Each structure stands twice: as C-alpha cells, then as structure tokens.
Prior knowledge:
Chain A is an alpha+beta fold. Chain A has helices at 8-11, 26-36, 41-44, and strands spanning 3-6, 19-20, 55-59, 62-63, 79-84. The model of chain A has no long low-confidence stretch (mean pLDDT 94).
Amino acid sequence: MPHITFAAAIQRHIVCPEREVVAPTVGAALEAVFALQPELRGYLLDDQGQLRRHMAIFVDGHAIRDRQRLGDHVAPDSRIYVVQALSGG
Amino acid sequence: MTELSDQALLRYSRHILLPELDIAGQQALLGARALIVGAGGLGSPVALYLASAGVGQLTIADDDVVELTNLQRQIAHDKASLGRNKAESAAARMLAMNPEVAVRVIGERLAGQSLADEVARHDVVLDCSDNFATRHAVNRACVAAGVPLVSGAAVRFDGQLAVFDTRQPASPCYHCLFPEEGEANDGPCATFGVLAPLVGVIGSLQAVEAIKLLAGIPVALGRLTLYDALESSFRSMKVPRDPACPVCSGRSSGSE
Ligand SMILES: [Zn+2]
C-alpha cells in the first residue's frame, strides 16, 4: 500500500502519523488521510482543493506536477512525503 | 588570474591539495564575488566559511542589530557586538579571520532596485534571510540576472537546502518549488525556537554549495535537501521546473 509521511514541520502544528493508504493518486491518498483527520485538510489545501503554496508533495522523491487537482499517480509501493516551506534563517 | 603569493599558497594549502579545487579552483574563489543576504543564524557560518575559504569579494547585507537572544546560535557575533548592525559585526569577524578578502557591508534591507543591482554584480547569492517575502524577492532578482542562488532555511529541528541556477535549462527556481509567498508562516525563531547548531548545519551546507559553484565543481540542481535533526536524517527530493512558473518560465534558458 502507498505510504504517506508528513514532515516534522507539519507535525508541530497538527500531529499526523505516517499511514498506509489505498489510493491511485495523491489526491485520493490525501482524502484517505482527511477521512481520519479532517483538521488536516485546511492546513494542506486551500478552498479550491489546491495544494497550499507553501506546501510541496513528493512521490518517490519527485515533486508532484499537478498541484491543482493532485492527479499524480501513486503506485502500490509508493512513498508520499508532504513538506512545508521553511522561512527561518 | 593573479599568481598566489607564498602566504596564500600556505593559507589555502588544504584546498589546493584537493584535486577538485587545486590552484585554479582557489584562484577562481579569490576572484569570485558572493552576496550574503542576512547575517543571522545561517549567515554567520556562511560568512565565516566563505571568508576563511578565500572568496575574494564578499558582500553581506542585514538591517538588524545584534541582540542577546541571537548569541545562542549566530556565531559571527559576540557580546561586544550587542547593539551593533549584524552585517557590520559579521564583517569584522570575517576580516579578523582573513584580511586577504574584501568585505562590503550593506546595513539596510535589500529590496527593489537595490536588490536587483546587488544581485547582478555578484557570481552567487546566498539566501540566509528569515522571511518568505525576502526569499521570493531574492529569487526573482537571481532569475532576472541569471545568478545562481543557494537557499537555506532552518527552524526548530528542521532545515532545508536547495541550489537554483536558472542559467541551466533544467534548473527550477525557488518559485517552481514553493509557488508564492507562504500564506501560513512556519514562524520566526522567536515564536518556535531553533536548535543552535541546526543553523550551522544548513549554513555550512550552503557554504559548501557556493564554493562548488564558484570553483567550477558540478552542483546538483533541481533538488531539495531536507534535514530532520530529531530523526538524524537527510532526505533528497527532486524538483522539476514548473513550465508555467511566472518567475522563470520566460527565461532564455541555456543562453550561457
Ligand atoms: Zn520558476
């Protein structure tokens, strides 16, 4: 099953453990997590369901291309990693 | 290129011993110009390492003054610097370490035309700032001028590093990775805290990448490195160009 992990910077705001999800796309994988943790949706996605601009999602180490509809394909053994931009210096 | 003096050969001997650098690489460093935006947590190790490594012309910009809370991690400053401009304080330390390099201080916040002008007259820019507005402004200026950008960020136990060089056709820019100014903030160090050596880790990585760029050593582009100090882990992610990026999609890629 695809595996989804949230970077530590996101964990500081909302605790979201690593999960196994059944999903063919990034969007479906996130929906599977939102079903368990609805509070995460507004943190990751805007009102239109697009990925928020300070977020990035990587599937098997590659940034997703479809930030609007999150249609990037996820393989059964994929690893999804959700990251938030940091600004501190 | 100018011949290295005996003193310089001695000072930089541990660089010259590296076949990837050699005398030619060190001469390239001595002839190079780097702009350091921010003289805080990241800017401290960046400034000290670039000065000690012999990057010939260094410009360091910061409009902030040194406060006691900075001294926990901003190692270019010390107790005697309290109340002093950060860029000025860092410059003094850089020159004490290596008077052979030229250090120029900009004691104000670079923005608009002054930012564009400064970026254009350097060979590499190191983003050591602490806010998204500056990060995006620095990125725009670097793309416009075709100057490579070494971006670092750190807060709490987390760090990020990326090198952008939009002279290379395949390289994304910062905006390709994070499309606009972040709506939500990861928060300044004053709110969330930051582990002292975390900024040393990320700032040192920035200095490594800048030296490679300046010495002509190949640098991995289109990559975001993530460091998690609690997990003691590094992750490397690939970042493609965004063909619709409003900042870099119109560039004349590969012209150099
Ligand atoms: Zn771009």
